[in-house]
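PROTEIN DATA CARD
Card holder: Secretory carrier-associated membrane protein
Chain length: 269
Origin: Canavalia gladiata
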Amino acid sequence: MNRHHDPNPFEEEEVNPFSNGGAAPASKSRSPPLASESLGFGQRHDATVDIPLDTTNDSKKKGQELAAWEADLKRREKEIKRREEAVSNAGVPVDDKNWPPFFPIIHHDISNEIPVHAQRLQYLAFASWLGIVLCLVFNVVAVIVCWIRGGGVKIFFLSVIYALLGVPLSYVLWYRPLYRAMRTDSALKFGWFFMFYMLHIVFCIFAAIAPPIVFHGKSLTGILAAIDVFSDHVLVGIFYLVGFGLFCLESLLSLWVLQKIYMYFRGNK
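Structure generated from the sequence above:
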């Protein structure tokens, strides 16, 4: 019996699925790819990528803060324009002199021009300005008493110069800038006020001490000048002690006002 020898025993047999012959011998099927091949270990798409979430969150937070800041600026601009339009529509001149009522020399209308939440603070600053006016005027009176008692004319002229310069300069240099800063919410005018108001406080403290460096210090009613004149003239000493108390009160009030206005400025900015 002659057997046909298959030269390639590993070659797959072709099977006709439409043949009516018996069951086809089981053909060698290709094995499915291994799991390791399908998963593709070591490929680039399997590498994990770390996304810095904190950076994204920070940028979003900064964007929200910037948007809120811009919205707040627009709101303030609209409020300022609204107040200015209200004043102009009412027919009230912005720089109309109306204070003091018996002899108007300055424009001053806190109740109508300053925002309601800042009116109390503006009244305190106005009290501080009236305080330095009172101190300088009483200083002239006390020095006149000292001059009459033989203190010399030079200290009288110096006290008059202090009053003539101090009253208008205090209004122009720090009170009016504060008034306009409260009305328009101007950071530049607030900065101007802080600079000259601190000089005002330094002068008040200097006057309360009255060191003997300008005509023996008797041109200012400070404590050292009061001690100097009290031994010679009790009445003059009493006037100087009252002047010393006024300058002390003005210094304390000014420091308190400075703190309040600084807190208001920081809160608004």
